[in-house]
Design a protein that fits this description.
Elements: H1 2-29, H2 118-127, E1 139-140, E2 145-146, H3 147-152, H4 167-181, H5 187-193
Antiparallel strand pairs: 1-2
Helix pairs in contact: 2-5
Length: 196
């Protein structure tokens, strides 16, 4: 019996609350028409100027030499004119200082690959030496080409995806890529193997 009473009390409170709040919600949701300020000009009252009488720069407040004269029917400002900001000269002086000769670049680390070619060692580093790997990470084959790079360097003539091409075909595409970008497309393994 107590559960039924609790339910009835909660229902009564809910209905009473809704009945009290409904008028407030309806009033707040009613659209309010925008008030039109009396001092603003309507489109019909706005002064018209023909294109021939407008000179470039007449609307600029920074030009002290030329001032636009107000039209007869335009609003006027009766106060003192606003001062024009003073112009500050801008100067810059550059000094050159002598520095010592640039240090010689460090000698590149010697290549440490030990396979039958640098590509075998690079594939061993990139994919464990598996030339037909496709792990689903967006990189394919022994040298982990992306689909866009593979097709961008002519891999599509061999296979749709790099992992579907032979080791030799992947090396052909890698040679094209290396000719243009060096070993930069394989940064981690380039550092590990000491490649330039």
């Amino acid at each position: 019996m107590t559960i039924v009473r609790r339910i009835l009390v909660l229902a009564a409170i809910s209905l009473t609350g809704i009945a009290l709040l409904a008028p407030l919600a309806a009033r707040s949701a009613a659209p309010v028409p925008p008030t039109i300020e009396e001092h603003l000009l309507t489109v019909d009252e706005a002064p018209r100027a023909d294109a021939a009488s407008i000179e470039r720069g007449t609307l600029s407040g920074r030009s002290a030499a030329r001032r636009a004269e107000p039209a007869d029917d335009a609003e006027s400002f009766d106060g003192d004119p606003l001062p024009t900001p003073a112009a500050a000269p801008m100067e810059a002086t550059l000094y050159s200082t002598a520095t010592g000769a640039a240090p010689a670049p460090a000698a590149p680390a010697p290549a440490t690959y030990s396979g039958s070619s640098v590509w075998d060692d690079l594939a061993r580093c990139e994919s464990g030496g598996n030339w037909s790997i496709n792990t689903g990470n967006g990189y394919y084959g022994g040298l982990q080409f992306s689909y866009a790079t593979w097709h961008g360097y002519g891999g599509g003539e061999f296979a749709e995806y790099p992992h579907q091409a032979t080791r030799e075909e992947q090396i052909v595409v890698a040679e094209r890529l290396r000719a243009e970008r060096g070993y930069a497309p394989w940064p981690a393994c380039r550092d590990t193997l000491g490649l330039p």
